[in-house]
Amino acid sequence: MKISMVDLGGQYLRLKDEIDAAVQDVCTKGTYINGAPVKIFCERLASCLEAPHVIPCGNGTDALRIALQTLRIGPENDVIVPSFTYIAPLEAVASVGASPVVVDVDPKSFNINPNLIERAITARTKAIIVVHLFGQSCDMEPIQRIADKYRLYIVEDNAQSLGASYMYSDGVSKKLGAIGIIGITSFFPTKPLACYGDGGALFTADSDLAEQIRLLANHGQTEKYHHKIIGCNSRLDTVQAAILNVKLNHLEAFNERRIRVADRYNHDLKSCPELVLPEKFPYSTHVYHQYTIRVLNNKRNTLKTYLAEKGIPSNIYYPLPVHEQEAYKWVARLSSHPNEAKKLCNEVLSLPIHTEMTNEMQTFIIESIQHFFSSRL
Ligand SMILES: *Cc1c(COP(=O)(O)O)cnc(C)c1O
Questions:
Q1: CA 120 to chain centre
Q2: I need a surface site. Which of 71, 127, 230, 300 has the fewest CB within 10 A?
Q3: Which of 66, 81, 85, 86 maximizes ligand 1 atoms within 8 Å of its Cβ, making it the mutation to test the pocket?
């Protein structure tokens, strides 16, 4: 029994007939850039997310940078980012010359703490990048209230939570990615909706912004060989779009499979006294891109090693808060000290969770974790 963090090859074998047919169709037709599947995929994703415009691009990091450029964020601006995240949001902010201002996260949700945002706002602040980490939404209602009050843009980084929704207190629910002025996602192979290489997309309800995004991602080109603005080349290949068209049919089933795995972890691990299991908040659905536990009393690394010895992989997302990264410690500004992020970095451990996980595999993982704690009481 081989246990992996994510089993992409196994998933491919299950979908092989559909995927092979889609890829061969692209190969035969020969339109490898901007072929029909790209437009079809974007339209289908738009209707799934209830986001009027979906614009494809090369990857999620490009998507973030293009979003900031579209909103004309530059060297005079601050952009608020969470303390505990993948680095891409900070990279995007720095790449347009703006300053990332780091706001600490809530240790229970792993997401930006809305109560700490207001004190981080200055006259230079123009946007908040919210990252819906590990499959669950940020608490958007208070964040939107602050954004409205100070006229800030909200850019949603939805690379990890595609398919999840946020529930407002009046009962209205919205798909993540379609809440901010611009939302982005990544189709990197391990993400909830993934292709077999790099890919990304931007979402917006604003037609003018959609137009500007299209221009920026395509050499600033209005018609062939006429360049209105300085753009870049950031595209979703036709082959990747064809694969995504197949996978989009299964997105809900993929998310449900991971939710089932998470439900079992939640049930079977709740008796381990030194673990904090991921909390699910009533304002969000959770698609469990990661199943991330916190291991207390300094036992995280010993548990990780113990599991590795049994052939069970686990990962630390993320080992450092963003402001301690070598490249960003001089760039990122702190509004207050991100203590919670620091603590999380020492406690978090992500367990295997994926669409191909069998009951047997999970039983072995769970029993190994239970044994680790019972043998150390
Ligand atoms: C993966 C990821 C990205 C970047 O996506 P790429 O397609 O790899 O560039 C951005 N933000 C978050 C939160 C991610 O997890």
A1: 23
A2: 230
A3: 86
280-330 per-position pLDDT tens digit:
999 999 999 999 999 999 999 999 999 999 999 999 999 999 999 999 998
Q: Is 56 in the pocket of ligand 1 (CB under 6 A)?
A: no
How far away, in angstroms, is 193 Cα from ligand 1 center? 12
Q: Which of 14, 50, 72, 29 is nearest to 216 (CA)?
A: 72
The answer, yes or no, to whether any atom of ligand 1 lies below 6 A from the CB of 290, is no
Cβ–ligand 1 distance for 60 under 6 Å, the answer yes
User: Collapsing DSSP states into helix, strand and coil, what is residue 6?
Assistant: coil
Q: Is there an atom of ligand 1 within 6 Å of 362 CB? A: no
Peptide bond into 291 cis (omega under 30): no
> What's the CA-to-centroid distance between 56 and ligand 1, angstroms?
14
Sorted by where each starts, the structural domains of the chain and their CATH numbers stand as: 8-248 (3.40.640.10), 251-374 (3.90.1150.10)
Dump pLDDT digits (tens) for 317-349. 999 999 999 999 989 989 889 999 999 999 999
Q: How confident is the model over 110-160, as pLDDT tens digits? A: 999 999 999 999 999 999 999 999 999 999 999 999 999 999 999 999 999
The CB density around residue 264, as the number of other CB atoms within 10 Å, is 17
Q: What is the pTM of this model?
A: 0.97
59 CA closest ligand 1 atom index: 7
Buried b / exposed e along 162-183 (16+ C-beta atoms within 10 A): bbbbbbeeeeeebbbbbbbbbb
Q: Is 112 in the pocket of ligand 1 (CB under 6 A)?
A: no
Q: Give the residue whose CA is nearest to atom 2 of ligand 1.
A: 159
What is the structure's pLDDT at 61? 98
Q: Which atom of ligand 1 is nearest to the CA of 160?
A: 15
Asked if 176 contacts 132 with a C-beta cutoff of 8 angstroms, the reply is yes
The model's pLDDT over 63-80, given as tens digits with 9 standing for 90+, comes to 999 999 999 999 999 999
